[in-house]
Design a protein that fits this description.
This is G-protein coupled receptors family 3 profile domain-containing protein. This protein has about 900 residues and is an alpha/beta fold. It contains 26 helices and 30 strands.
């Protein structure tokens, strides 16, 4: 298989030399045969020449050799060779096909077409499930703009595109880019880190310069959101065209440089590609302009910028970088560059020609047109003219001129691919049993699930296809006339926190090496106050007319103020009222009204209301975290206990007096377990409160007052999201609503049989009070404490006066005698429609006095009603009411 592919590639190369288009040499200039071929998309050149003058679909002409990207592509090739040498995939050899994107999306798309072509053609099908191109996965591209274009095309075939540098947030959208993965975090996390580092150093007045490509525009929009969250304001924003020739870009760069010089912002964020930053810094160096620069990941470790002449004049530079790691084997490979056996690499040939070819005429003032650009001439070795054959030469230039640790993530991408292939091909210690020529979408599925170890760390892709790792925070410190990178901290993606490891580093842009200042307005001195201008970060300092500043007055419900005294007195009076009610219920527990009121349930209700009244007291005084939590939990559990008892009473009436079929009736009877219902309902509220305290606990609101306010309101915040607070209140409201509906369903039952009227009015009052509470609480958060305490009091008093007061009145001032016949007549009257004529079957109900002084039970006959020992009315036999329209049969359920 290996020899066959070698011969096939060689034949294709020969055909290309004599054919119409030598595409392999011009664009896809590095290949090596293998059983599974990996595509590599890297910009070995910085730009396409004369792109603005292109009028026909001719081949692209690329220029400006990109040394850093070339080194990264060599890292991928070296790692593939290492995997093959280690026999990581037994019996399977990895090959590669490397194409040059020239930092241009259209070129990259042309490269992809070449990679996917079968016999120099790319067929159009309805279903690509069995599409089997020679390239199974593509590693790249360098820039997000190119990756976005390529990922859209590859999504048609579901071929994986694995990048180690494209960080645009849009690429996390799996609906648009289902086959894209990356070994770095999304830009969403980087902009969060940028906002935090500005807040940490106290920079609230910054300028931003970004490119007009997808990477720059998306990163800028994401930064705006995070800047606002960190109280950072923008002095200006400038856009540089992403792809312009030098003749066109230079005037625009000078305009941006002038904007930076004239601005009062001393900190500038640059979300640009490396080449644009280098051009901008040349202008800054020329005009001797110093600022504090914050670098995006695209250039934060650029060795070419760090070694610019005069780089120390631009000021401090800091930024975030991805994870890096040195590899001695790779450094050794770069010092002894060679082509993979059986393959070819025209990019290595081009590099060696630039490095070792003798061209002294190119250094003259009138250099010939065929000479490399000034940037490329910097690569020329001092002893280039001493060599006869440049292709036979090697040195350590790539190791010394570049930071080879930047290639860590590219090596990581190769190992992620290899581990996914090992799963897909079912490799064991001696062989791989899976199908070699598989459709690429199968490899994509394995990549999404892969989890592997690399250099003592574990890696895997999240649901968005990203690595959730961390960023290194670096500062560019002086190293003679150049700069070197010093790691001073990191930012973890998961916990979203910046951690500084070195705090005493030196700042160069300030005379005394202190932290540079970049604020729209200086802090006001004592004796003046802030007057906010258009931007929230800007203000004028206006003299107060006083000789000294006054401290803000703390505002909370003080015990000595009239309102807290009134609220506390109302809570204490409510507790005393409940105590009196409890004594009345206890002394008259054998009377029929009290028996019908279920004394035990009523006492539990009083206990719950007492806890609610006590919680009101904790709303007074200066709040602290413990009081904020205790008062809400006490109210939640106390009132839930009370409402659960009301719900049991309503459910009892619902079961006893509403007609059901016998089967339904028996099933509903099994649900009537008062003690169990009360415990379960209250326990559920306890679980809600526990989760609330764990995940979003109430605390003291730390929102600062406006600069003009002389009052600092100290009050509780019911969690950062208020979700737990809302669920707690909604749960009680749901119980109250269910109790109201059950009671409303049995509203025609006489009060002698039930408490439906009491339940209806008490639950209606509760719902009305809290429906009014919510909008007032939201609109005026500062008075939320007073509003909630008042709502608790009103709803608690509503239950006392609507539920308990009528029973106390019946016991103390109303006669306790009532004839059974009169009670049953009432029941018949309200149970029948007014226009129906009711005819009774001959049942003689004797007059019975319902008095607590008499025996607890009177058995009239086997077909007569009786008064049970519990004091409630039971009908032991059926009472049949015949109407013109129907026959209704009712029966009591329990005593």
């Amino acid at each position: 298989m290996y020899r066959f592919l070698s011969a096939l590639i060689a034949l294709s190369s020969l055909q290309a030399c004599g054919g119409e288009c030598d595409f392999a040499h011009s664009m896809c200039g590095a290949q090596a045969p293998g059983d599974v071929v990996i595509g590599i998309l890297m910009p070995c050149h910085n730009k396409v020449t004369a792109l603005g003058k292109r009028i026909r679909p001719e081949s692209y002409d690329c220029s400006d050799f990109h040394l850093t990207s070339f080194m990264r592509s060599l890292a991928v090739i070296h790692e593939i060779e290492q995997i093959n040498a280690a026999d990581f995939l037994p019996g399977v050899r990895l090959g590669y096909m490397m194409c040059d994107t020239c930092s241009f999306a259209s070129t990259a798309l042309q490269n992809v077409e070449y990679m996917l072509a079968v016999n120099r053609s790319l067929n159009v099908d309805c279903d690509y499930s069995d599409f089997r191109p020679r390239v199974k996965i593509i590693l790249g591209a360098l820039y997000s703009e190119v990756s976005i274009a390529v990922a859209r095309l590859l999504s048609v075939y579901m071929i994986p595109l694995l990048s180690s540098t494209s960080s645009a947030q849009d690429l996390s959208d799996k609906r648009r880019y289902p086959g894209f993965l990356r070994t770095i975090p999304s830009d969403k996390h980087q902009t969060e880190a940028l906002g935090q580092v500005m807040h940490h150093f106290g920079w609230n007045w910054v300028g931003v310069v970004y490119g007009d490509d997808e990477y720059g525009s998306a990163a800028f929009q994401s930064f705006l959101k995070n800047a606002e969250e960190n109280s950072v304001c923008l002095n200006y924003k400038e856009v540089l065209p992403d792809y312009l020739d030098n003749s066109q870009s230079l005037p625009r760069i000078k305009q941006v440089a002038e904007r930076i010089r004239s601005s009062t912002a001393r900190v500038v964020l640059l979300i640009l590609k490396e080449g644009l930053v280098e051009a901008l810094f040349k202008e800054m160096i020329r005009t001797n302009t110093s600022r504090t620069w914050i670098a995006s990941d695209a250039w934060s470790r650029s060795r070419s910028i760090a070694q610019m002449e005069g780089i120390n004049k631009v000021g401090d530079i800091l930024g975030f970088t991805f994870v890096t790691g040195k590899n001695e084997s790779f450094d050794k490979y770069l010092k002894n560059l060679r082509v993979t056996p059986g393959g070819y690499n025209h990019f290595i040939e081009e590099y060696k020609n630039l490095r070792f070819n003798c061209t002294p005429e190119c250094f003259s003032d009138k250099a010939p047109s065929y000479c490399p650009s000034p940037y490329e001439l910097k690569m020329k070795a001092d002893n280039a003219c001493n060599f006869k054959d440049p292709q036979e030469q090697n040195d350590d230039h790539l190791v010394t001129a570049l930071d080879t640790s930047d290639a860590f993530l590219h090596r990581l991408a190769v190992w992620a691919t290899a581990n996914a292939l090992k799963k897909l091909l079912k490799c064991n210690g001696s062989s791989c049993l899976g199908e070699i020529n598989f459709p690429p979408w199968k490899l994509l599925e394995e990549l999404k699930k892969v989890q592997f170890e690399f250099e003592n760390s574990s890696f895997f892709f999240d649901n968005n296809g990203d690595f959730e790792d961390y960023y290194n925070l670096i500062i560019w410190e002086k190293d003679g006339d150049h700069r070197r990178f010093l790691k001073i901290g990191n930012y973890h993606v998961l916990n979203k926190q910046i951690k500084l490891e070195i705090k005493d580093f030196i700042w160069f842009s300030t005379a005394n090496t202190t932290i540079p200042q970049s604020r729209c307005s200086e802090r006001c001195t004592p004796g003046s106050f802030k007057k906010i201008l258009n931007a929230s970060c800007c203000h004028n300092c206006t003299l107060c007319g006083w000789t000294q500043c006054k401290q803000r007055k703390e505002s909370f419900l003080r015990w000595s103020d009239p309102l807290p005294i009134i609220l506390t007195a109302a809570a204490v009076f409510g507790i005393l009222l409940l105590l009196v009610t409890f004594i009345i219920f206890l002394l008259n527990r054998n009377s029929p009204p009290m028996k019908r009121a279920e004394v035990r349930l009523s006492c539990v209700m009083m206990a719950g209301l007492s806890v609610s009244f006590v919680s009101v007291i904790w709303f007074m005084g200066k709040p602290n975290v413990h009081l904020c939590r205790a008062r809400q939990v006490m109210y939640a559990l106390g009132f839930t206990l009370c409402v659960s008892c009301v719900l049991v009473k309503a459910f009892r009436t619902f079961l006893a007096f509403l007609p059901f079929g016998q089967l339904t009736s028996r099933r509903l009877h099994k649900l009537y377990k008062p003690l169990v219902i009360v415990i379960v309902i209250t326990s559920l509220q306890g679980v809600i409160c526990l989760l609330w305290l764990i995940f979003d606990s109430p605390d003291i609101d730390d929102t600062p007052p406006s600069p003009q306010s002389m009052k600092q309101v100290i009050h509780c915040r019911e969690g950062h999201t208020y979700i737990g607070f809302g669920i707690m209140l909604s749960y009680i409201a749901l119980l109250a609503l269910v109790g109201f509906l059950l009671a409303f369903k049995g509203r025609k039952v006489p009060q002698e049989f039930s408490e439906t009227g009491n339940i209806i009015f008490s639950m209606l009052m509760y719902l009305f009070v809290w429906v009014c509470f919510i909008p007032v609480y939201i609109m005026n958060n500062e008075s939320g404490t007073t509003v909630q305490a008042s709502a608790i009091l009103v709803s608690s008093y509503g239950i006392i006066f609507c539920h308990f007061s009528p029973k106390c009145y019946q016991v103390l001032w109303k006669s306790n005698t009532e004839t059974l016949e009169r009670i049953l007549n009432k029941w018949r009257a309200i149970s029948s429609p007014k226009h129906d004529v009711v005819t009774e079957i001959n049942i003689d109900f004797p007059r019975v006095t319902l008095s607590s002084e008499k025996s607890d039970s009177f058995i009239i006959s086997s077909t007569s009603p009786k008064l049970c020992s519990s004091g409630t009315l039971c009908i032991s036999s059926y009472t049949t009411l015949v109407t013109k329209r129907k026959m209704a049969r009712t029966r009591s359920i329990s005593c």
